[in-house]
Amino acid sequence: MAQLDKLLQQIVTKGGRSLRIEPNQPPFVEFSGGGSAPVLPQALPPTMLEHITQEVIPPQSREAWSKQGQIVFEYLAGGVNYRIAMERSAIGNRLKAEPKDGLSSGGIGIQEIKFVDEEPARTSPSGPPSSPAMAVVPSAMAIALDLAPSPSPAATSLAGGPAPVNVQSSSSNSMPVVDSIFAGPAPQRELHPLALVLFTALLERKGSDIHCTCGENPIFRIHGELQDFRECGPMNETQLMDLMRSLATPDAWGKFQSHSDADFAFGFDLGGCRLRVNFFQDRVGPGFVARVIPNEIPDPDRLGLPEHVRQLALLAKGLVLVTGPTGSGKSTTLAAIIDLANQQRMDHIVTIEDPIEFVHPRKKCLINQREVHTHTESFKSGLRAALREDPDIVLVGEMRDLETIAIALETAVTGHLVFGTLHTSSAVGTIDRIVDQFPSDRQQQIRVMMADALKAVISQILLKKIGGGRVAALESLFITPAISNLMREGKVFQIPSAMQVGRAYGQRLMNDVLMDMIQEKKVTAMDAYLKCPDKESFIQTIKRAGINFDPRAGQTGEM
Q1: Is 291 in a helix, a strand, or coil?
Q2: For the whole prediction, is pTM greater than 0.90?
Q3: Burial 256-291 (b: 16+ CB within 10 A, else e)
Q4: Phi then psi dihedrals of residue 71, to 5 deg
Q5: Largest Cα–Cα distance in the chain?
Q6: What is the SS3 assignment for 457?
Q7: Cα-flanking dihedrals φ and ψ of residue 294, to 5°?
Q8: Is the sign of the CA dihedral 490, 399, 368, 313 positive or negative?
């Protein structure tokens, strides 16, 4: 059942004329005689409203919705045929639905939408709906908890104050049910009350990761720094196992029990995001880490991707690598590039990920996303199979071993565009890392293949931004004929010099990128120094720019 269906049922239940859903306001039913009544006690944020509307748009209307931002269609729910009008506004999607008797569910038409009143009616016998000025995440939590038959102790603690959360684990396998319109259909995936509190608080604080370990408070990573979530006390093994069992798919739970670790993705609909989850066992017991993956595909403008990097989406063939340490935003950058290809090309894209992170809707490209251990045995088997699936673009989530790297190179040489990630600290170092993976008697052959296949290496790090948040610094190496010759001859050490004179091609060394960010007041000199891979060279670069900075000599970096 679609999430909208339960809201539509309220029209009949309340004897109303229509249902209205506006961004950042509680959904409400309008009555024929005037007035309205709220359907939910709190507001729906734009991210949640986007998810609800996308779920019910007919396939034949998606193109019109994408281009025009206005559609009208018929929708059958609970035996009642509804006329649904949707339009995209500056702050989010708007929806109006009313029962329409005598129409078949197949007659879908696109007409001009007219929302008669720009502001929803606010008079009702029971008083006005709740204020629209609600924070996104607290609203989501309030919806779930207010509709529940009985609030959990975890929810009561978070709503009432900083008292520690103490959720008693169930003695059976049955989990408390959150009676929400967003509850999933599968019983094993019903959201645990403590998971709801933790994930909601994580999003409210704009965190990127949550760490849960036996005997410790849950810990959030916020703008790169770890912070205890003290509203929830230390978690014991029983609580953690109870919580983890409710999150895992049956396959992931079976793997965790047999191998003591597991990776999977979890859809947190209330927060409008997905979570990449890792289960593990350590010396004190079970634990897990979850990373937030927004449902929205990242916007290249907001990421600040340079134009030369965006143009990688239009390459006809070759190998493009995005590298950097764990948590540096490699997946986010790749998702933005793949989305650009999806918007501008008419090709077949195959992704092989562990697990699937960003979910790409079809725009102009056909996209097949395969998950390791779910849809294919491994990266190398998925990549080998992709060659028989008529791909134009292949995304390899992680090039972990020699065989995967070799198949990716062969795929690129044979005329496909391949994107992949590696855990290396610099663009030039990536070339040596790949060559060194192979036996010495094959390394010259690999150098030749790399010189022919490699098109670009993007190496990135994340830094704390002045004023809050984080910003990515991108080192970019684009393979020109001169650099290709250096690779073929094994003179990789000369590539940085070639990059310094190739800024017109988009070449940027990490030190130069960091220097620009310091001068633009985006990051501090100390943060840039701590993150840069070559600290000695960085100090020389920053001194040439007239900044006295050397932490070894007590210089603070004043201009």
Answers
A1: strand
A2: no
A3: beeeeebbbbbbbbbbbbbbbbbbeeeeeebbbbbb
A4: -150, 155
A5: 85
A6: strand
A7: -60, 150
A8: negative
Domain boundaries, the chain: 3-99, 136-161+188-294, 300-508, 511-559
Question: How do residues 206-258 score in pLDDT, each as one tens digit?
Answer: 899 999 999 999 999 998 889 999 888 899 999 899 999 999 988 889 999 99
The amino acid sitting at 354 is D
Instruction: Look at residue 117 in the predicted model and tell me its pLDDT.
Output: 46
Q: Give the CATH class of 136-161+188-294.
A: alpha beta
Rounded Cα distance between 474 and 345, Å, is 25
Q: Give dist(CA 506, CA 162) in Å, integer.
A: 51
Residues contacting residue 399 through CB under 8 Å, at least 6 positions apart: 321, 379, 405, 408, 420, 421, 422
What is the b/e burial string over 402-429, where b = at least 16 CB atoms within 10 angstroms of the residue's CB?
Answer: ebbbbbbbbbbbeebbbbbbbebbbbbb
What is the C-alpha separation between 229 and 199, in angstroms, rounded? 11
3-99 fold = Beta-Lactamase (3.30.450)
What is the CATH code of the structural domain delimited by 300-508? 3.40.50.300
CATH topology agreement for domains 3-99 and 300-508:
no
Sheet containing 225-228: order of strands: 225-228, 219-222, 209-213, 285-294, 273-282, 261-268
